[in-house]
Amino acid sequence: QVQLTESGGGLVESGGSLTLTCVASRSAEPIYVMAWYRQAPGKRREMVASIATDDHNENYADSVRGRFTISKDRAKDTIYLQMDSLKPEDTAVYYCNTVSGVALKLNWGQGTQVTVSS
Length: 118
Known about the structure:
This protein is an all-beta fold. It has no helices and 11 strands.
């Protein structure tokens, strides 16, 4: 069972920046993809950014492309989400996600709150 621990959320003013961190541990299976999702109140959970662990190929939601950057520590199963030019509509609980093992199991962290004030 992969354990995911997120940190770095908080309250920031519009236009500000935050960096989220996710550490994956206890993984007995290879992790293929690590990603960030978010869920705002009353809305569905959506993918924000993902990164492949082999070639570090990155994907972004259109709403964050150019403002957010996902990166991965090459030595550890740790990813970061650098969030710049934050907007009030970025307010949400941000969840770390991994895809692991031959069964492509999805693993989720407990989430970290990001609040952007206008």
